[in-house]
Amino acid sequence: MDQTLSLNGDPNIGVFARVFEDLAFVPIDAPTEFRNKIAEALEVEVVPTFIQGSSVIGLLLTGNSRGFVVSGLIQDAELNLLQEYGDVLLLGEEMNAAGNVILTNDSFAVVHPDMSSVMCDMVADFLKVKITPMSFAGVGTVGMSCACTNAGFLLPARSSPEEIEKLESHISNPDIAIGTGSVNMGSNLIGTGLLVNSKGYLAGNATTGYELGRIEDVFGFL
Question: What is the total count of domains within the chain?
Fold first, then answer.
């Protein structure tokens, strides 16, 4: 199976969709082929929706097995849909683009370095994770610059040794792989071009064979 995908020719599939272990949320107007490939490759139920009336779901939604974290500007009907599938935490006006500023799996989360301690505590308590504010390759929007599962973290190729060492010290779990890479022919914004869970992955259709190899290595698909 081809492990690459685009949305109407746009390789930034992580901007428009958010994948969890058993669910994927995609724009209502996404083509059937897009939905079906996500369902097949990642073994998930695909749920069409908008967030804030927008198709950039990946920027506005994140979470783990305990629930969803989403922009507090979400519309009522959209919120009701999310609540059919799990608990929901709404972010306030400060840094409400949850998928942009939070990178999380079931045990650990990294958040934008400027996130307030109050919001950090709220997110950590809701998701039941250890949390640390930091950036990678000097980019604070960790939800879009990186990608993670319970098996691994893929960081931008330009991440510094100090950033990688800091993440390793906070995770302190040798079973979680940490590596660097890129998507879409050199883009350091990995989260914008990658959908991944424990069962599979899809990368933007501009992603090279070498980049796919790094994804497979870090997340254990080799």
Answer: 1
